[in-house]
Amino acid sequence: MWHLVTSPELDFKVLGEGVRRFLVEECGLKPHETILDVGCGIGRNAVPLIGQVREYYGFDIMPDAIKWCQKNITRRHPNFHFHLADIYNKSYNPAGNYQASEYEFPYPDGTFDLVFLISIFTHMLPSDVENYFSEIARVLKPGGRCAISFLLLNDEARKNIATGQGVFDFKFELDGCYAQDEAVPEAAIAYDEERIRGLYEKYGLKLREPILYGSWSSSQIQSQDIVVASKVE
Fold this sequence. Notes:
Low-confidence stretches: none
Number of domains: 1
CATH superfamily: Vaccinia Virus protein VP39
Order of helices and strands: HHEEHEEHEEHEEEHEE
Strand order of the largest sheet: 3-2-1-4-5-11-10
CATH class: Alpha Beta
Number of strands: 11
Mean pLDDT: 94
Distance between the termini: 29 Å
Strand content: 15-25%
Structural class: alpha/beta
Number of helices: 6
Radius of gyration: 17 Å
Shape: globular
């Protein structure tokens, strides 16, 4: 079912509903809980969650996306909150004042029951990813859960890539990650699975086994790998 969460070939509404189902069925989302959608875009994940949660918070670096969500979602559903992240990005937010590697999520410690990131770390460099791990752990309640999608490199994925089965080859090795495009590394980034496991351990997030591996390395369907974890109490 997690293939309905991260496959760009699918319809906008289908993807949003897939995320909602995943959060309920795989992460145990309950109506009384408060959640954070990191990289919320124009509300694809938010709309199917209307009436499903106590409070929804989302942030993104795209000003137009946040304005649209505030106008079209928050006005009708005041428990849905959208925040423009003051993060510099040459394409999406050139007026941003901070790098992702130094950005502090604009929420108090222990705010959220569930934090989720869909196809965010697949476009972020190592220092940015590590900072976000730290912030996710900080804003989660003890026992809170997080669901994050990745492109993970392990023995199986590497074997599939070597035989030309997958969408990507990730032949450009950078400092701590692998890129599909050397000139624009953020277009698609993969990480060694062991490196990611180490970050979960470092920041007190207990990874749930098994990892839900996608099919990106073994077919032309770009479904990603999803890791569900909980904050150690």
